[in-house]
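Tutorial, part two.
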Amino acid sequence: MGKKSHNRSSIGNEIKEVKQSINSGLDRIERRVAALEASDAQNAMDIRNLQIQMRVMRGEKQTDLAREYALSEGRISQIAKS
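Running the prediction step on this input gives:
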């Protein structure tokens, strides 16, 4: 009877270790996804800013761009000068 109890305990410990390993892997994946999402957001903002700069250089009114991009005129001006 003691041997069966030991085997159950051993299996229980192995299951616990596997769960911990899976959770650790999921945590790493979650952190990587968050980093990629942040990177994508930064890239999208950089592209938006370049589009604004080009359009200002072509002579479009900053007031119109501010309305279109839902930004303040001051922010459009900052982007255009950067």
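The chain has a mean pLDDT of 91. In part three we will examine how such features are distributed along the chain.
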